[in-house]
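pasting for the record
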Amino acid sequence: MLKRLLTFFILAIGLCSTAQAQSVRIKDLVEVEGVRSNDLVGYGLVVGLNGTGDGLRNSPFTEEIMSNILERLGVNVTGEQFRPRNVAAVIVTGKLPAFARIGGQIDITVSAIGDASSLLGGTLIMTPLNAADGQIYAVAQGTVIAGGVEAEGDAARVVQGVPTAGVIPSGARVEREVEFDFTQLSSLRLALREPDFTTAARIEDVINRAIGRRAATMMDAGTVTVDLGRTGTATPARAVVAIENLAVEPQRRARVVVDQRSGTIVMGADVRISRVAVSQGGLTLRIEEAPLAIQPNPFAEGETVVVPRTGAAIEEEPGIGLAEVPTGTSLSEVIAGLNALGVSPRDMIDILKSIKAAGALHADFVVM
């Protein structure tokens, strides 16, 4: 009896840990209305490069922006001919976080748009960053940290990474705030990152149980609204704090994701395969050229002749025959059935495509 009780408690603890592992916080499943970032973009100039900048004959826009910057600084370059190789035109991008305030700093990314070979050691000159409405929300400046290495000699050149793009941590300062008064909201709209009716219903139930009254309502598969007047909180921010850490067990569509470039296959836990038979083989065409040079005997008249010799063959692999993949009721059984085919990951991708086309793969098939 003691052994049975001990076994029961171990199973109960295992089930509880499994349930907790499957639960996800609401803040990781939804986006709150108004709490979002905004994309910023700007056009600037990086200086101080070691001869790796734009060729001004191939990038006339670099010379134009140089002239504009120098004229704003009081340097008259009208009619002058200058061909420096230590400057590069770049596109600067960044994200303005939600509730960013004037004076705050954000990270930015700098990318060359001309024929510059590297941005290593360069400095971005003051660049305004605009949002979709055309207004300037931040100003960027600083030393570029490029993500690559370049070395060059007289007869060889090696490049690792991408030296034509880099980042500037805290490289932009916020100059304008997004006009949004979060305190004036009378209700919250929670937008699911992956719309699903079951997940939305569970979010509604969890919020209502935690508050003790019906404050949340599922509008559709991707939206849950929360009546702030029924939450009993002083401000909308307090309401978000009260609900964002509640745990929900999400439901997602079964999905198989394959990356043909690397041969990677990822399957979700809900993937199912109906009973199906699979046969797979390969055909290889091999052509080899081995020309033979025939020379005349020593001191004899004649000339060297090259006689072509070509070997052509077609090889067909025996394949796996007709193998049965049984009905999969769990992910482990699906994997075991597919592994029984004994093929490489790239061949497995083709097999999964064919199983999906036959209607036996019950999941979304995503090819990257």
